[in-house]
Here is the input.
Amino acid sequence: MLNVPTQSFPAAGSQQRVAPAGQSGRNKVALKPGHSLMDWIRFAKSGRDHTGLRGRLIEVTEEELKKHGRRDDCWTCIRGMVYNVTPYMDYHPGGEEELMKAAGKDGTELFDQVHRWVNYESMLKECLVGRMAVKPLAVKGTKTHTYSTVNIVVYTKRKIPRSGCATIDLQGGVLRLEALLGNMSYMLHLRLTEEVEGSVEVQTAGSVGKIQLSIPKQAKGKWASVGQPLEFHNSFLRQKDRALHYRDCVLVSKTEVNHNTSVFRLQLGCGSVMHVPVGKHVYLKTQVQDAEVVKPYTPVEQSLIPVVPVDPTHGSDLFLMIKVYPDGLFTPQLDTLHIGDHLMVSGPEGPFSLRPLRDVTHLYLLAAGTGFTPMARLIQLSLQDLGSIKSTKLLLFNRQEKDITWRSQMDELAATDQRFQVEYVLSEPGDGWPGQKGRVEQSMLRDFLSRPEGSRVYVCVCGPSAFTELTEELVRQQGFSQEEVHTFQG
Ligand SMILES: Cc1cc2nc3c(=O)[nH]c(=O)nc-3n(C[C@H](O)[C@H](O)[C@H](O)COP(=O)(O)OP(=O)(O)OC[C@H]3O[C@@H](n4cnc5c(N)ncnc54)[C@H](O)[C@@H]3O)c2cc1C
Ligand code: HEM
Here is the structure.
């Protein structure tokens, strides 16, 4: 029989308990009257200048932060933001002593150890001093030890994909590197000291987190420094806080996939190197009647079945499978482009992460129409790189048979690799269609999504928003948790 202990709340030794006199540790302290959370909120919003900066936000260096480590002048940094916590001191339920442990330094770790959930951003909004002038994770640059090349090395201090995580642009003597590290982005931005050739060679050592750039110099010789820092050089920000950066690309081929969809192959200039991680998208930008129009697209590989690269120097080419809507805003314009025409493309974006796929054994992909595009690379990745995945199943919804893209390739793959299965569903099937008919519904998913014993499952959904929303709901109704489902959305 289980002994159920008698409950008391807060439990003995709980962090929720007020500390008995003389006892320290992770307990709450008894606050002076008039110092409750509600009192703090009132005080914070009273219109006083809580930072001494009259609302101005500044960039705080580590040296500056260190100067504010006293009880009567106390700044701390939480997740890259610096707050003046001096006025909050008497209101802190953990007490002054605890808060002072983070004085004049980065308090994120201490803060998280005690109460990661505390909503400090809204509590300390009026105490915000500014953003930390972040030092790079670690950058070794300025190595001019060869007379003929500039070598720059970025150490990310964490593993990165073998295929790379950096987008590099070298144009007009300006070097811009942006490395995607989870949802963070590191940027290196320099005006190079002297003239260089237009091309960059990039090498990535994934397991040690090293990105190495080699740029041939125009004139051999030793430089005093690699270059002058430009805007956001050495910054480490959340990717969503960074503005989109576009570079020029050229349409080099267009291959019809069906009656309304083609694969557009875009080539970046020789100074640009970009690898779009699986599941991320890029934005294309062009002028439509004097207005700039931007739309997202998810790169695919050249083909579902691996092909030998035609020209290895064009390793950075992007393949975009795009459906042209005759009455659309952007795609008719794209469709009028000729081979050799230019357009602008952004770096990779999007919240998809491969992390939840670790240890997954059964991957289910539910796609409608061009929602197939993120699935194409996921299929390849699951079969080639993700060893734990024993089964990858795609359920693809289209209107008519002629709308199915890359069907013969998918059938070939399913015939040659038993870990991959594909089923097509048509909403407007022709006579004699042997496959499934209709729109997404519960019984269809019940048959498709299984959860064998001991399996770890993951479901990805992509299509028009109405399809995605409904499908996600149906998948959740089948008992799949939020962590087991990813929906690709705009
Ligand atoms: C993250 C993401 C990734 C994507 N990846 C791809 C991809 O890889 N390939 C791809 O082909 N597409 C992709 N898309 C879709 C793509 O971004 C564009 O939406 C698509 O190309 C249509 O653009 P358009 O400007 O030509 O058409 P739009 O002007 O957007 O029109 C498209 C269709 O919708 C109709 N329409 C427009 N507005 C309305 C309205 N208010 N009510 C009803 N109907 C309307 C139009 O008549 C037309 O038939 C992706 C979208 C997202 C969000
Ligand atoms: C800088 C911003 C901080 C804010 C806004 C803040 C806010 C709070 C709040 C609201 C509580 C009460 C939690 C509850 O009721 O559950 C609390 C408790 C506490 N805080 Fe902080 N805190 C900050 C920093 C820190 C730091 C840096 C430390 C440690 C070094 C710390 C240690 C504690 C402790 C020990 C408690 C009591 C135990 C607990 O409630 O879990 N706090 N803090």
In short: The CA atoms of residues 267 and 317 lie 5 Å apart. The chain has four domains: 37-132, 139-241, 246-346, 355-487. The first helix runs from residue 37 to 44. The mean pLDDT is 87.
